[in-house]
Amino acid sequence: MNSSAGTQIVVVGAGIVGASVAYHAARAGAAVTLVDAGRPGGGVTADSFAWIASSLGSGVAAGLRVMATDEYRRLEAELPGLPVTWSGSLSWRVGESAPQTKPGQQLVDAATAVKLEPNLREPPEWAVWGPDEGAVDPVGLTEHLIAGAREYGAQVHLDVPVSGVRRDADGRVAGVETAEGPLTGTTVVLSAGVATATLAASIGVSVPVEPSPATLFRFRAPAGLVRTVVNTQDFDLRQVAPDRLIAAADSPERTLAAIHSTFRGAESVELLSARVGHRPMPADEEPIIGPVADVPGLYVAVMHAAVTLAPGVGRLVASELVNGTTEETLAGCRLDRF
C-alpha cells in the first residue's frame, strides 16, 4: 500500500488489537480515527485469559509470538503504568514425558517447581518454566493504548456502531458509515473481532473468521495461592487480585475440583462467575493481517491470541500503513493465502 505520514486511517474496533493499531499509527504521525460499537476492550478482549504466551504455538504466528515479551517491554517504556504482571509461567502434564523446551523456556524439576509455586500439593516430576512470560489486565491495557492514541491526536468514537465501509467512484476506500454519520479516511483497518467478516462481506470481501467460544471462570481465593501463570491439562490459571483467581477451562465443576486437588489452602476457593467469550478464529487459526488487494485502502487485522500479539502487530501494521513498508514478519499472515 502506498502510504505516507499524511494517511487518514479509520480503525474499526477498540479491542486490544484495534487500540494497538490506533496508538501505533497515531504515534507514527497518521491522522487516526478509532470507532467501536461499545467501550474499550468491551468485547472478547474483556473475556481473555490474557497470558503473554510468547512460547506457545507454531506456524506463521510463531515469529510474532517470539517478539511478544520485547514488544510489551517496549510498550511499558512508552506508556508507563501498563497493567502487566511479569510472573513467569509454569506448565506441566501429569503422566506425559517431558517435552523439548523452546527458546526462553527452562525444564525444571519438582524441587524447583515447588519453589515457584509453594502451595502445590504434589509438585510435578517436571515442568516447563517460562521466566519471561506474564499476563495483563486486557481492558486496562486497551484503555492505556487508547489514551496514548488520543495524546497523539487520534479521534475516538465509542458506542458508535459501524454499518459498512464506504468506497468512492473508483472503488477505493473512503471511510465508514456509522449510526452517527460517515467517518472519512483513505485507509480503513477492520479489527472488529468476529464482526470483521460481516463488515468485509458488505463490500464483497470474504474474511474466513468464525466465533470460537472460550469460557473464563472467576473464583474467590486466598491471597497468594497461585504465584505464576499455571498451565496444566486441567486449566490455565492465574491470580488477578489478592482474593481472585481466573481460569480458562471447560467445566466449572472439574476446574474447581482440580484447583482444590492441586493447591494446598485451596479449600475455600469458590466459583463466582463464568463468561463465554467468542474469540475471532481464522479458518486456519493463524492471524489475518494485511491489505486487501481488490479494495484499495482496506486493511484487515484479526486474530486469535490477540493479547499476546497486539503490541507487536500494532507496531508492524502502523509501519506498513504510515511508512509504506512491507513487514516480512507479516508475510505469512496475508488474506490472499485463502
TrEMBL record:
Could you tell me which SUPFAM superfamilies the record lists for this protein?
Answer: FAD/NAD(P)-binding domain
Q: What range(s) does the FAD dependent oxidoreductase domain occupy?
A: 9-319
Key word Oxidoreductase present: yes
Q: Which GO terms describe its cellular component?
A: cytoplasm
Pfam annotation, one family? DAO
The record, for PANTHER family, names: GLYCINE OXIDASE, SARCOSINE DEHYDROGENASE-RELATED
Official protein name in the record? Glycine/D-amino acid oxidase-like deaminating enzyme
Q: Which organism is it from?
A: Kribbella italica
